[in-house]
Amino acid sequence: MAAAGTESLRWNLAEEVGVSGCNRNIVNGSGSVSEEFHVLAVDDSIVDRKLIERLLKSSSFKVTAVDSGTRALQYLGLGGEKSSSAVGFNDLKVNLIMTDYSMPGMTGYELLKKIKESKAFKEIPVVIMSSENVLTRIHSCLEEGAEDFLVKPVKKSDVTKLKDFMVKGDQAEKGKRRSIKRKVEGDFVEPKMATATNTTIASSSEEDQSSSASHSPSTSSLSSLCSSPSCKRSRLQ
């Protein structure tokens, strides 16, 4: 009965945000799509999946919704070939992942671990959702790197704070790229600078030696000077 009541509540919420009986795309007030960030939503429940998708789209996010952790990994390219049926957003960068905790095959916690173990995607913020408010689950997910743990049904107020997570993740990724770029540039620039410096030092050394040679009299010149009559008279006196 409790499960039926929860499902009924979800359907009611879905009706409120325009899920049931509505197949048209959510667009901004002007009529044009204006999403800035892309969210990968993962849930085995079609009702929850549609609800999350509509909530995110109504907040101007692009959304890709899949029904399992395995499909999410395939979409990201971590579980083999990238899926070609991922709702038409295959080439978009993912800014945030929202995943249900309890799913058959692969739990949301296991999906979280795989993402955080990936060098390519570990900077992507991950938000866990669950119908059960279990403290041990919440603690485990946050310890593993989840940005937040939301209790279902997800509400509009939950969605409004997601952008902060995405901005933070985007900044972290940009910082990582800048760091890599500086390292790569340093690897190429520093040896060239060192070579140029060595060449300059060598040239300066040669110039100094040449200058010294041009200003100091040679041995033969000294000999000829000392053999002159005036030099001999000076020595006798």
UniProtKB/TrEMBL annotation:
One of its GO terms (biological process) is phosphorelay signal transduction system. Residues 194-231 have a biased composition (Low complexity). Keywords: Phosphoprotein, Transcription, Transcription regulation, Two-component regulatory system. Residues 38-167 form the Response regulatory domain. SMART domains: REC. Residues 186-237 are annotated as: Disordered. CDD domains: REC_typeA_ARR. The modification 4-aspartylphosphate is found at residue 100. Pfam families: Response_reg. This is Response regulatory domain-containing protein. It comes from Linum tenue.
